[in-house]
Design a protein that fits this description.
three-stranded antiparallel β-sheet, 1 helix, 137 residues, elongated, 8 strands, mainly beta
């Protein structure tokens, strides 16, 4: 097994977020409404994107500082939370998690996270707030 020192993990994260070819550069955050548990085999087409009134993707997001967590993993967290707020009159979505994409042609799936519990969107001003976090190691 290869072991990466902490400074190497942080260096990799710095490159991923700053280099235009890095997988965390200029990424967008989406919500998914299908009961999916993402795996290493999940592809973009597996997600059903939320479509409640007022929904739109958030991005590109800005990444904050990097750190090493107590498990010895490199972590980077978005500088700000992504807020998805229902407006209008079409609600009836149940949100199971979020996924992060990059690019426009093609759009690339970068990572996804399922929430511990689904979030129902059933009325105006119902909201989902996500603080994207990427962990390496």
């Amino acid at each position: 097994m290869i072991i990466l020192p902490s400074n190497s993990l942080l260096q990799i994260l710095a490159i991923l977020k700053a280099d235009p070819s890095g997988m965390l550069f200029a990424v967008n955050v989406h919500l998914f409404k299908n009961d999916l548990t993402p795996t290493i085999n999940t592809v973009l087409a597996d997600f059903s994107e939320a479509d409640f009134s007022g929904y739109s993707l958030v991005g590109p997001i800005q990444w904050g500082n990097m750190f090493i967590n107590t498990a010895g993993q490199g972590v980077i967290v978005s500088l700000t939370s992504c807020q998805f707020i229902a407006t209008g009159s079409t609600f009836q979505d149940v949100i199971y998690g979020y996924y992060v994409t990059q690019g426009t042609a093609p759009v690339l799936l970068r990572f996804a996270e399922r929430f511990p519990a689904p979030v129902a969107i059933s009325a105006a001003n119902d909201a989902v707030v996500v603080l994207p976090q990427f962990t390496l190691g």
